[in-house]
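User: I want to check something. If I give you two sequences, will you return the structure for each one separately, not as a complex?

Assistant: Yes, each is folded on its own. Here is the first sequence with its structure:
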Amino acid sequence: MHATITNTTLPSADESAIARESSRSLAVALDSRSDTQQFDFKTDKGELHSVTLPTSALRLLVEVLAEIGQGNAVSIIPIHAELTTQEAADLLNVSRPYLVQLLEKGEIPFRKVNTHRRVLYQDVVSYKQRIDDERRKALDELAAQAQELDMGY
């Protein structure tokens, strides 16, 4: 699946305000125990339409609107999506050559399509989580050492 929804532009102040209000309004429906939620909306021509959403999709929509409401740009990528090495490098905030080194060392699984490497989004996120956990652990150990040595931190 290559359907990636990406909005790299930051929302305007008006869009952020509308997103914040929409997020709050829609969040009320999340308290329901129902698997689906039905919403009615009017088109710009005044026509009334109904739409039924899975509650899980509504939860995601509320999270997206909350992020936009905070002025953040949002990207939605399917978990099973395959990324190019550049997309994976961008996600990890590293250079593409460095990412290729990680792939060749076996740090992140990949497959080749002709001469091109493809990386599963899920594998990139797992790698990021793993290195973030290692960093957190190292920082905790440094903080503990600083406390033991009474370094004033």
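And separately, the second sequence with its own structure:
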Amino acid sequence: MHVHLLQHSPHQGPARIADWLASMGHSYTVFHLDAGELPPRLADGDALIVLDGPEGNIDDAQCPWLRGERKLILQALNGNKPLLGIGFGARLIAESLGAVVARGTVAETGWHRVVLAPLSPVDLPDTFEAFMWHREVFSLPDYALALGRSEASPLQGFTWDGGRVVGVLCHLEATAASVRALLDHQPAPVGSETSPHAQNRAEMLDDPRRFDRLAPLLDRLLSQWLGSTAAA
């Protein structure tokens, strides 16, 4: 299987997703939209991953690649290939499905507990710890199933069309290196300095085992997601 990944910042890449794809024998191409690369043709790949990116209100004037990316996401939603969005990518997918995307009450950064929704079809533990880096949130799209929630975010993700489409706010792909890149190069989400759900750098990096515990969760999520079309 060949997977296309859409990247929107040099410091918000695929992280452990790239390792997982390679270990499972899948090939992939990363398209750096922020660097001027054009989005791929949907027909040239077997699945599409839309990675995290900028926070806040953005428009086509600020990000000239956004119009083409939205068209590609709509094509993917109307097709039959697996589509996964993380953070900013999940917000774009939710928006394309008619959901409301807006600034949340507080910023949520660092490590927080996610409680799986009762009807969530995603193969994850009932509760698990995940890495967060966001202020923007979205409502549940029509005909979607909620993935779960955290204390600060009532909706941490969703599945749509039998699991073929998945959007997640939290970052199961995070590694110590990817978090350091965020902290070194990206501004924290608005309101992080006053949010009770925002951690400092030391708290985010103090326990390397946290990143190790994300690996099996990512494996379960990606395996189910890529297997959704074959099982349909």
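Because they were folded independently, the notes below concern the second chain alone. The helical segments are 16-23, 66-78, 88-96, 176-185, 201-205, 209-231. The first strand starts at residue 2 and ends at 7.
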